[in-house]
Amino acid sequence: MSPTNQVYIAIIGAGGVGKCFLSQLQTLAARRPSPKLSLCYISTSKKALFKNDYAPIPTENALQALASSSTAPLALPKVVEFLAAAPAKVVLVDNTSSQDVADAYPAFLSRGISIVTPNKKAFSGSYQLWQDIFTASSTSGAKVYHESSVGAGLPVISTLKDLVDTGDEVTKIEGVFSGTMSFLFNSFAPLEGEGGKWSAEVKKAKELGYTEPDPRDDLNGLDVARKLTILARLAGLPVESPTSFPVQSLIPQQLESVATGDEFLQKLPEFDSEMEGTKAAAQNQGKVVRFVGSIDVATKAVKVGLEMFDRSHPIAALKGSDNIISFYTKRYGSNPLIIQGAGAGGDVTAMGVTSDLIKVLAQI
Amino acid sequence: MSPTNQVYIAIIGAGGVGKCFLSQLQTLAARRPSPKLSLCYISTSKKALFKNDYAPIPTENALQALASSSTAPLALPKVVEFLAAAPAKVVLVDNTSSQDVADAYPAFLSRGISIVTPNKKAFSGSYQLWQDIFTASSTSGAKVYHESSVGAGLPVISTLKDLVDTGDEVTKIEGVFSGTMSFLFNSFAPLEGEGGKWSAEVKKAKELGYTEPDPRDDLNGLDVARKLTILARLAGLPVESPTSFPVQSLIPQQLESVATGDEFLQKLPEFDSEMEGTKAAAQNQGKVVRFVGSIDVATKAVKVGLEMFDRSHPIAALKGSDNIISFYTKRYGSNPLIIQGAGAGGDVTAMGVTSDLIKVLAQI
Q: Best label site of A6, A46, A313, B357, fewest CB within 10 Å?
């Protein structure tokens, strides 16, 4: 524990997850008098709040104060300097999905600044960055936790780490890793009833806020590929990048280059027949189609795309926008260890960040 | 971390879980040079191995050495004294299911000795013992972790703690908490096919080693009641004991007092009609019967017994001797966070103990 019994918290990012995290941090600080948690830096891409003497920023109105701030955020190397000079231990909470912030993790960690984050980019970018991050962490003793980078607050990363650290052999990881894809396929090819047309389901998902502003950013499979990259590396496979294994995109080739998401949605119905064919092929075998990722550790095969599942398979029975992750291991035998539940949303994502913070606080 | 960069490990219990743990400890010590883990005490109820100067006991042949030892175990107060006087931090691994050892936890903890254990008795005994354990831990700073007390190595306790610690509101916990009961009902009332007679399934389960030597020790529901007691307390309910809420026993009243497990099994077929009736009643509603535990946090209702589930419910679809635990919370909404997999067995139980040990080592 920090000798001064105080820990400084720095937050980059105040979007959906950032707002929920700030609220959870306030509750946490109120419930746990020790160590005293002091917010010393908070920024968006446009604005920042901080004092040169590290005077605590009140969490209860930090967002309003940030909105009316006229201070620009520090450049990342300056943030490293500012936090490294703080008079107590510091935990950086990266609530962005920024590659730039991720690229700076080795710099933060090597200066003794611990990191908790839902940002997938740091752990699914180049394998070099992955190595730099964990080397910096083990050299300085600063901690880096990223539970919410896969499955939001579901205990996915921690469970996989526990399996590996206790000497189990993970043989296969399989699941539905995208809330958006889960929602789309549970509606398009449900266990009960017919389901809607593919283009109509994509449109509905967008209207309900389940997709990125341009739905192609979900349909290209990259988000799932990033999560698979993280899990494969934790399972011991040195996967080079999320584009170094087969990833099936659900964007029709002719629509890859249309200018906007709206134009994409408008033209998508012309391509419904292909997805209808896939659905019918599964139905003819008494199965349903789902968008899944899998890692076969022995053959080092990582892949993302459509697969068919028996109607009694847990992946077929998924509901809403839930994720499901199955760990097949030597110890668990033929029945996998399964984790299931909401894998997206501000509150549950922030929960993973907050529980990571609690774990880091117990160790620094 | 311990100033000497060494941590002493003391193990009580060398049965099924103890043997698996010892093997995992050996792997762990070989993989992690720091802190150095030294086994300084190991005992069964009859024998012990230890040196007055805390000289390390080689883990690779500790079991053989223990078997040929002529030293009796120390009385528990003497074990406390012996470990408290060790020249470095100590973690006690209680691999027994002994109430006596559990009752000594406050004494160990108050002397700064951390504890990891699958022993349910400490956390499901009197509420006074529960309070004494956690008061001693928070006063001395010694840690106490018991992941494997519910669901073996499945991340049940850690997930519930994370939910509570990050400020989520757990509204309901429901599941199948006994591998034995899971196996019995998945065979007696399967989703596909007719299933066998109740008494025949109990006999088969015993032959396969899925039950206690006397199957009544599973069928009385107490094991499940103990697990529910632990989870309810973690969720904030001050449950007095595992007998302070309704627990349905599956032992026919007339067979409660027969002398032996064998006599019980011999007479059980005379009572098959009652369980057949329960199965038929469920079938008539298109459901299946399962033995479950549930905690309704708002109404403080904890109960254990038979319930009917829709055939599409995850509890109905369970396989083999798997456990399933569903956490309903404010953040997770209508779809619970679900954890599923093997909830019994030496290796997976020891895995929970070993991962607890890793967490304790990171903090002491």
A: A46
- Choosing among 3.40.30.10, 3.40.50.720, 3.40.190.10, 1.10.10.10, the CATH entry for A3-152+347-363 is 3.40.50.720
At B2 the pLDDT is 44
Q: Looking at the predicted structure, is the pLDDT value of residue A316 above 90?
A: yes
Is the predicted pLDDT of residue B201 greater than 90, yes or no?
yes
Given the residues B227, B267, B303, B319, select the one marked as catalytic.
Answer: B227
Residues 6+ apart with CB under 8 A from A266: none
Tell me the shortest Cα–Cα distance from A40 to chain B, in angstroms. 21
**Is the confidence at residue A1, as pLDDT, over 60?**
no
Mutate: best of B162, B176, B327, B358, partner A, most A CBs <10 A? B162
ipTM value > 0.85: yes
For residue range A11-47, what is the model confidence (pLDDT) as tens digits?
999 999 999 999 999 999 999 888 999 999 999 999 9
Helices A157-165, B346-361: crossing angle, 10 deg rounding: 100
For chain A, say whether B322 makes contact (Cβ under 8 Å): yes
Residue B348 has pLDDT above 90, yes or no: yes
Dihedral angle at the C-alpha atoms of A179, A185, A191, A194, nearest 10 degrees?
140
Chain A positions in Cβ-Cβ contact with residue B362 (cut-off 8 Å):
362-363
Q: Are B66 and B42 a contacting pair, CB within 8 Å?
A: yes
For the cut 70, the answer to whether the pLDDT of residue A2 exceeds it is no
- List C-alpha distances in Å: B230 to A190, A260, B119, B152, B164: 37, 54, 11, 13, 14
What pLDDT does B165 receive?
A: 96
Within chain B, strands assigned E span 6-12, 36-43, 48-50, 89-94, 114-116, 144-145, 170-176, 287-296, 301-310, 322-329, 337-342
Q: Is residue A144 exposed (0-12), middle (13-18) or buried (19+ Cβ within 10 Å)? A: buried
Q: Identify the active-site residue in A227, A267, A330, A359.
A: A227
Note whether A100 contacts B: Cβ–Cβ < 8 A.
no
d(CA B57, CA B39) in angstroms, rounded, equals: 5
Bigger pLDDT: A70 vs B5: A70
pLDDT band for B209, please (50, 70, 90 cuts): confident
Task: List the B89-94 sheet strands across, edge first.
Answer: B48-50, B36-43, B6-12, B89-94, B114-116, B144-145
pLDDT at residue A209 in the model: 86
The domain ranges of chain B are: 3-152+347-363, 156-343
Q: Do domains A3-152+347-363 and A156-343 have the same CATH topology?
A: no
Rounded mean pLDDT, A141-150: 98
pLDDT of residue A34: 85
pLDDT (tens digit per residue) in B307-334: 999 988 899 989 999 999 999 999 999 9
Q: Is B36 a catalytic residue?
A: no
Q: What is the pLDDT of residue B318?
A: 92
pLDDT greater than 80 at residue B4: no
Which tokens hold the place of A5? 């019994």
CB A104 within 8 A of CB A76: yes
Amino acid identity at B188: F
> Which DSSP string corresponds to A137-195?
HHHH---EE-GGGTTTTSSSHHHHHHHHHTT--EEEEEEE--HHHHHHHHHHS-SSS--
